[in-house]
Amino acid sequence: MLARLASKRLLEIRQAFRQSPQTIRSLSTALNYHIDTPENNPNVPWEFNEANKPKVNEILSHYPSNYKQSAVIPLLDLAQQQHGGWLPVSAMDAVAKVVEVAPIRVYEVATFYSMFNRAKVGKYHLLVCGTTPCMIRGSREIEDALLKHLGVKRNEVTKDGLFSVGEMECMGCCVNAPMITVADYSTGSKGYTYNYYEDVTPKRVVEIVEALKRGEKPPHGTQNPERINCGPAGGNTTLLGEPKPPPCRDLDAC
User: Fold this and answer.
1) β pairing state of 124-129 and 163-168
2) Which parts of the sequence are annotated with region: Disordered (predicted)?
3) With the CA atoms of 232, 236, 237 and 238 taken in that order, what torsion angle do they form, in degrees rounded to the nearest 10?
4) What are phi and psi of 122, to 5 degrees?
């Protein structure tokens, strides 16, 4: 009896999601299961295009023929680039066919890594680092500035299809927190880039968005004019010259 009630409730929830495309678009990247939509279901035809088929063969050539499944991640990345920055379930099925594994093996990978988007994103997918150092340095204000300026919620796409905003955990440059990355799918797999912008402010991220709208490519890296790469703002205050060598390098002879 309880099992039937639970099954009925789950069916009701799924039906509610299907009847609300906005909810699906907002949340599906965070779900660990798939919900069919008109533009994302197993019956939508998908295959690697002629330009990417040689790349598929080149990727497969890196692995022994009996370990094709090792190519899942680079093939998913190529499929995502071809499809404008996101992976429909039919693209995952195509990758499974190429590497000769059950589709569930590909779904497991695509749902694990945050780099794979399972719902539509903008040509410029803006990802805000949400890990502790960036959060302490104002990443929530960075995200709020982006969402307000673009008029969207997290994981929504702007009406012109240009921008979407998401979150990514630690991007690995905590010393230059807060930071964002811009996944640029505007030219597909031919000119795909993934650039980091560090030391950003709410004002600066809006400027970056406006520059991208104009077709410009803002210089990536630190946005703090007083900092060189990951060096201290204002320049070094210690280690200003060559360090003095130890008096004796042969420790056994000391």
Assistant:
1) parallel
2) 215-244
3) 110
4) -75, 170
Residue 85 — left, alpha, or beta (φ > 0 → left; ψ -120 to 50 → alpha)?
left
Contact of 87 with 117, CB cutoff 8 Å: yes
Residue 206: pLDDT over 50: yes
Token digits of residue 150 = 């673009």
Which two tokens mark 172?
A: 């690995």
Count of other CB atoms within 10 angstroms of residue 26: 16
The answer to whether 179 and 201 have CB atoms below 8 angstroms apart is no
Long-range contacts at 64-68 (CB < 8 A, ≥ 24 apart): 68/98, 68/99, 68/100, 68/101
Q: Distances in Å between the alpha carbon of 177 and those of 43, 224, 236, 243?
A: 43, 11, 19, 29
Q: What is the mean pLDDT of residues 41-47?
A: 93
129 is in an annotated binding site: yes
Residue 13 is predicted with a pLDDT of 60
Q: What is the mean pLDDT of residues 130-150?
A: 95
Mean per-residue pLDDT, 37-58: 93
Give the three-class secondary structure for 124: strand
Contact 165, 152 (CB under 8 A): yes
- Structure token pair of residue 183: 């996944």
Please indicate if the annotation marks 248 as binding a ligand.
Answer: no
Better pLDDT: 22 or 116 = 116
Residue 170 marked as a ligand binder: yes
Q: What is the pTM of this model?
A: 0.75
